[in-house]
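Can anyone check this?
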Amino acid sequence: MGTGLGIFDDASTAKRDQIIGMLTTAYWMEIETVMSYIQASANLEGVDAREVAASLEADIQDEIMHAQQFAARIHQLSGVVPGSMDFRPVQGTLQPPAPTTDVMHVVNGVIDAERGAVLHYTELIEACGDADPVTADMVTTILADEQGHLRLFEGFKRGYEARSS
């Protein structure tokens, strides 16, 4: 029987562990996105690069803040925020393009990363259910940011495609 402590009930241990695992994945997603956006904004060059690079530079601060929020919530749920030795990169589509003027490579990589975040954060909110409304609320706010980033880069893609056709 629960004690009325919600996610902190002893009966909620498995759910709490699941949420901590999903928060940890989200944390690493944000950390990797920061690394990818830093390199992409620094490496991109050419006529079309400045607007995309500037958008990435602005998004970096959001992504850092998201990582910090995920880390704080992991800790609040009695989890341990992992160290750098646990990092495993997965953003293959956001590796530096060759040539560095390939803006569409970066735009497509950002779209992939943001779609992955939107999908994972939606699943995380669903996993929280009624057991953890605090995490669900925090992730819902972060999800709105990621949807905005996704929409912006989908717009870049449509614009570049329209110009090239």
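Reply from J.R.: I decoded it. Helices lie at 13-43, 49-76, 103-128, 133-164.
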